Amino acid sequence: MATSKPAAKDEAAPAETRAKPSRLKGVLITGVVGVVFLGAGAGASWWFFGRHVPAGAQQTATPAAPEAIVTAAPPSYLAIEPMVVNLSGDSGDRLVQIGITLALSDEKSNDRIKAFLPAIRNAAILTISQRAATDLLTREGKEKLARDIQAEVTRIIGAGATSPVREVLFANFIVQ
Predict the structure, then answer these.
(1) What is the residue range of 167's domain?
(2) Are residues 87 and 148 in the same domain?
(3) For the segment 53-109, what is each residue's pLDDT rounded down to a tens digit?
(4) Cα(5)–Cα(119) distance, rounded to whole angstroms?
(5) CA distance linking residue 147 with residue 167, whole number of Å
(6) Are 106 and 164 members of one domain?
(7) Which of 22, 97, 161, 171 is 20 to 30 A removed from 6 (C-alpha atoms)?
(8) Helices 108-115 & 117-129, crossing angle to 10 degrees?
(9) At which of 15, 30, 60 does a domain end?
């Protein structure tokens, strides 16, 4: 009997040592998985936020030298009453409802332009009515119309190269 008891103790000892490696194995696997997730997160952060812009693109995005920046006076705006104009073309009766705002170089030009407002409005209506609806549906067509109206305003007020009209803006633009 004395020989059988020590054998029981020897069998119990390997069972205890087997339990420790499986616990260590679980902690090790959890650690490896955690490191993999941290690496994936760091890689994703670099991919979305940390990639550098190519050297050529970075140079073009830099602002101009401070001495090259010219601060212009803010423009004065003159809104022209919205108008509804028939459009030309073979597609039937087409209308455009348009609101025009003139961006002027300074406040004193505002009174000068107001004196010619009926003639400017008439010229705008005539210029718009020459357009086809398909021309006014594109950005290029709208930009060309704005340039043409600006040229007409400059012609009417007789300003020539020193026109106070910086830009023609559209407040609303609906083609039907």
Answers:
(1) 76-175
(2) yes
(3) 555 555 555 555 555 555 667 788 999 999 999 888 776 788 899 999 999 888 888
(4) 120
(5) 8
(6) yes
(7) 22
(8) 70
(9) 60
56/92 same-domain check: no
Report the distance separating Cα 142 and Cα 171, nearest Å.
Answer: 12
Both 39 and 89 in one domain: the answer is no
Q: Tell me if the pTM is above 0.90.
A: no
Are 85 and 165 part of one and the same domain? yes
Please check whether residues 154 and 82 belong to one and the same domain.
Answer: yes
Q: How many residues in the chain? A: 176
Instruction: Give me the sheet containing 76-86, strands edge to edge.
Output: 76-86, 95-104, 165-175
Tens digits of per-residue pLDDT, 27-54?
Answer: 888 888 888 888 888 877 776 776 665 5
Residues 143 and 108 in one domain: yes
Please spell the DSSP secondary structure of the chain, one letter per residue.
-TTHHHHHHHHHHHHHHHHHHHHHHHHHHHHHHHHHHHHHHHHHHIIIIIPPPPHHHHHHTSPPPGGG--PPPPPEEEEEEEEEEEPBSSSS--EEEEEEEEEESSTHHHHHHHHTHHHHHHHHHHHHHTSBHHHHTSHHHHHHHHHHHHHHHHHHHT-GGG-SEEEEEEEEEEE-
For the beta carbon of residue 118, count every other beta carbon within 10 angstroms: 10
